[in-house]
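Aim 2 progress update. The chain analyzed this quarter is reproduced below.
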Amino acid sequence: MASRLVGVIGTSNASPSIAALAYETGRLLAQKGCTVLCGGMGGVMEEAARGAASAGGTSIGLLPREASEANPYLTHAIATGLGEARNFLITHASPVLIAIGGGLGTLSEIAMALRLGKRVVALRTWTARDEENNPLPVLPAESPEEAVRLALGEPGP
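Predicted structure tokens:
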């Protein structure tokens, strides 16, 4: 059976609380048999990969430049040489994304994913409204458990 692919995106400079959320999200995804796809570097990306590894799971990192940038917890590190354009690859390859914390790079990934009609779960990250002040279709989550449930389309408690 093929593993479900879930993109985990977020800040490369995670606070301890954001790092803990990313770790737990990666761990829970691995427990559910998912493969974590991320940008492969530090912060949220590293913690999600570390969480997946702790549960015996798989993570793939799409690195902006060279393999030497890879965090040590990735199962597979792919050096794209594309710089920030690798965000385009992450959003296109992931059927669903969980955004945790984040700066402008994360915001660009959220926007691209929404433009592509992908499901995006927001865990302590950007939320926005359109030009008519309607909320964008991002699914807010309060915990890693809820984020994973929403990402996988599982029913609530």
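The mean pLDDT is 93. Residues 50 and 73 are 5 Å apart (CA to CA). These observations will guide the mutagenesis experiments scheduled for the next reporting period.
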